[in-house]
Amino acid sequence: MNHRHQWMVFLATAVALLFIPGGVMAQTVVKVGNILPLSGPSASVGLQNKQAQDMAIEEINSAGGIKSLGGAKIQMFYADSESKPEKGVAEAERFINTEKVNVLTGCWNSAVSYPVSAVAERYGIPFIVPVSVADKITEQGFKNVFRIAAKDSWWTRDQFAFLKDIEKEFNVKIATLAFVYENGDWGKGFAEGWKKLAQQGGYKVVLDEPYPSTATDLSPVVQKIKRANPDVLFLTSNAADAILLTNTMAEYKVKPKAIIASGGGHADPSFMKAAGKNAKYLFDIVEWETDVNKPGAKEINEKFKKLYGYNLAGESVDAYVAMYVMADALERAKSSDPKAIREALVQTKLNKGPAMIVGYDAIEFDSSGQNKHAALVMVQVNDIGKGMERITVWPKVSRRANYKPVFPTP
Amino acid sequence: MLFILEDTINGILMGSIYGLAALGLTLIFGVLKVINFAHGSLLMVGMYVAYWAVILTGMHPYLVLVIVVPIMFVFGYLLQDILIKPIFKAEKDVREPITVIIVTTGVWYILDNLSLLVFGPQYRNIQGNPLQGKMLEFGDMMISVPKLWGFCAAIITAALVYLFLQKTRMGRAVRATSLDREAASLQGINQYKIYNVTFGIGTAVAGVAGTALVPFFNIFPSVGVLFDIKCFIIVVLGGLGSIGGALLGGMIVGVIESVGPQFMTATWTEAIVYGLFLVFLFLKPSGLFGVKYDW
Fold it and tell me: Which of A156, A297, B16, B27 could pair with B151 as two cysteines, CB 3.0-4.6 Å apart?
């Protein structure tokens, strides 16, 4: 018995000796803490984000990791926020104090990212936010928060920028606008932005109409649109009301020169099915569309679809791109020290590589940490021989090759 | 002023469909003295049955009533017989059995989530049905054809239910039970059978309402919730248990919703409808046609 015990000690020592030099010489690992809603109400979008980021990290690591750190691999730690701010904060603390992560990322929900940004700031850990869009996240004067996606107020800004551009392109003068939106925080927030921008742009607002998202009959609202007779109609709708509005407008033959929607219900896959040909010529603003005319976009989407069985959506693209922004910063930081990574992130000027599947041409952060080039794309719903589909039309650099938008609506 | 006429007509048409949806609720309340919280879900089930009947058989959206009505009647009959009757029996000494209300709430959740599980969350409608998007045009005035069909369906259904209650032996038994179930039982009426039949008819009427909505409305698992609250308001406006009251109450709500937005934003009309609801509760809790004294 005693004899055997000695043998085991010897063996253990031998094994330990074998591994210690390996441990010392192994490439350093960069630890990334990622907080996402992996259960609860936002679980499905949280999972989409995770899958896109898994794919990016796998690509970065198998391409040799971070070369300036001797091929260091990125190690991702996931935590589930359940969409709860307090859970997100607790996990961020744990990541920083226990796991000693070098970078934080997440948290999808603006409500979670907002308090987590304060934790990151306190410990001086760079926090890369792919998609939480609430304006306030980058407006706290923090030095460690970096956001990839366009913020809330930029959606309305881009809708008007698109309108200006398309007016010029087709030489059509737009004078009157109508705003119709669901009566929630989201719709009302958009409407406020629209009103300001309409005033600046010199447009006349002929209708400003919130409606309850639970309405069972939207023909009164459609009648109001018809009687106001606007050149362009702006919409913010959830799915059920988006379908009902679109179909009812077709019944009453309401045909403004253009309808510009705000994603949400209009971007829901069942919208296209249930509205059918009534959705033809509708413009809708989104973060990204699968047909974006950028090199690599198609291949990366194909790869993602093969792995997970569905197309990349705008939010997953931002999540994917965020990992490349991080890798780029690590490469330039030549260190896994959070301070050095933060300095490198500030200097970011990424204009090549897989990250450039976005609809714009470079990623740079302004002094608040907001990606200042982040833009959205405008799609038009049209049938060009393959059934109704969403075709990217704006900005012009990302427009689908050989597609000419239909404006004004015939 | 033409537009007021146009909106009033739209309001009456849409409102009659609300009334049709509320008819089943008022009928079930009148007899069972139980507020059926699952009524919106029954409407939802009716919509799905009508939807699949049209998709699978390719029939005219109103011809499928020959399938929808029997299926929904049997569904309602069995639902009452299997799920609700035991609770009634357990609480037979209570005049308004509260537990039954809780059971119907459970039925609501189960049905909504079951359809979410089976049919998925997506919004459906019947593309290319002969009524979809059809409009009658009189100069500038436009009237929706599917809503006009719904209006006719509401009037005919209400008339048939009325005739059934007034003229048939079973109808008289239903009315007797609704007046006084003890006395009815003493006359040899099997009250539980009457409950089953009434619940079946109420569910079948919800099926008719669902069929009327299918040609122009979206079908999704929680669609019943949109109509549920409206139905309660209508039933209180018209008077609990009153058939004509349900139709008239529906039309009042429809006209407010349709004409109101021309003078204010659409969100305010909801406030007016709820306000009216409160006024009725304060001043005339029995509604337009309800009886003042309960038996």
Answer: B16
- Taking contacts as CB-CB distances below 8 angstroms, the residues of chain A near B133 are 247, 250-251, 278
User: Is B180 a residue whose pLDDT tops 90?
Assistant: no
Q: What percentage of chain B reaches a pLDDT higher than 70?
A: 98
Q: Choose the mutation target among B55, B267, B273 for the interface with A, i.e. most A CBs under 10 Å.
A: B267
* Amino acid at residue number A66: I
The mean predicted confidence, pLDDT, of chain B is 90
CA distance A205 to A198: 7
Q: Which residues of B touch A223 (CB under 8 A)?
A: 3, 6-7, 10, 261-262
- What's the rounded Cα separation, in Å, for the pair B222 and B133? 23
Site from B143, B218, B219 to mutate, A interface, most A CB atoms within 10 angstroms? B218
pLDDT score for A2: 54
- How close is the nearest chain B Cα to the Cα of A384, in Å? 20
Chain B residues within 8 Å of chain A (Cβ atoms):
3, 6-7, 10, 14, 18, 121-125, 127, 133-135, 142, 144, 216-218, 220, 223, 225-227, 230, 254, 257-262, 265-267, 269-270
Q: Helix and strand tally (H, E) in chain B?
A: 12, 2
Inter-chain contact A223–B262, Cβ cutoff 8 Å? yes
List, for residues A332-381, the tens digit of each pLDDT value.
999 999 999 999 999 999 998 999 998 888 999 999 999 999 888 899 99
Tokens 């000419």 found at:
A404
- pLDDT at residue A308 in the model: 86
Given a cut of 50, is residue A23 above it in pLDDT? no
Radius of gyration from C-alpha coordinates of chain A:
25
May I ask the CATH class of domain A29-150+294-357?
alpha beta
Q: Is B134 exposed, middle or buried (0-12, 13-18, 19+ CB in 10 A)?
A: middle
- Across A313-324, average pLDDT: 91
Which residues of chain A make contact with B124, given a CB cutoff of 8 A? Answer: 270, 273-274
Tens-digit pLDDT profile for residues B187-203: 999 989 999 999 999 99
Mean per-residue pLDDT for A63-82? 92
Domain count, chain B: 1
Q: What is the mean pLDDT of chain A?
A: 88
Instruction: Give the closest-approach CA distance of A125 to chain B in angstroms.
Output: 40
Contact check, Cβ <8 Å, B135/A271 = no
When pLDDT is cut at 50, 70 and 90, the band that residue A1 belongs to is very low
- Domain A153-286+377-398, CATH 1.20.1250.20 — does that match? no
The whole-number pLDDT of residue B54 equals 94
Task: Kindly give the residue spans of alpha helices, DSSP state H, lying in A26-172.
Answer: 43-62, 85-94, 110-123, 152-170
- Dump the DSSP string for B188-248: T--HHHHHHHHHHHHHHHHHHHHHHHTTTS-B-TTHHHHHHHHHHHHHHHH-TT-HHHHHH
| B217 inside domain | yes
Q: What pLDDT does A8 receive?
A: 57
User: What's the domain range around B106?
Assistant: 2-223
Q: Is residue B243 part of a domain?
A: no
Question: How confident is the model at residue A21, as a pLDDT?
Answer: 42
Q: Which of A209, A250, A270 sits opposite B266 (nearest CB)?
A: A209
Nearest CA in chain B to A277: B127
pLDDT value of position A204:
96
Q: Residue ranges of the domains in chain A?
A: 29-150+294-357, 153-286+377-398
Report yes or no on B257 lying in a domain: no
Check CB contact under 8 Å for B258 and A270. no
d(CA B239, CA B256): 18
